[in-house]
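Q: What would this chain look like folded?
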Amino acid sequence: MLKEEHEVDVLGVPHNPAPPTSTMIHIGRETSMPNHVIWSLFNTLFVNSCHLGFIVFIYSVKSRDRKMVGDLTRAQAYASTAKCLNIWALILGIIMTILLSINQESSRPGALPMTCFPHTLPSIPHPAHELSPVLALYPHIVSYNGIQ
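A: My prediction, written as structure tokens:
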């Protein structure tokens, strides 16, 4: 007789007559609800028109926190608000960038007027020999009462 068979003979049958029980654990699906934190962080750092990006970031963090706690209804509401405000922040940021670039282009000395078809080209008002050295280096300085 082998040693393994001998050990089985010594141990015998199990003493518990009840059938073995099993436990089943149900793991819920991970709900993929976007909280828009990355988009909000981008709007906060780069766009942030009227501090709207910061407000959106707060809503995104609230959405993430509610999702972690398990309050999916409130998390969805915060995520929806964050998405809507992210869209508005991005649109306002693009509009402000365009308006500022147009304003900077038109305020440049010697820039063309803002009409589509100018009848006459603007003349350059000051020749190089009439410019003071300060005004030549810094043309955006405005003269107040004759003092530059």
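The longest helix spans residues 72-106.
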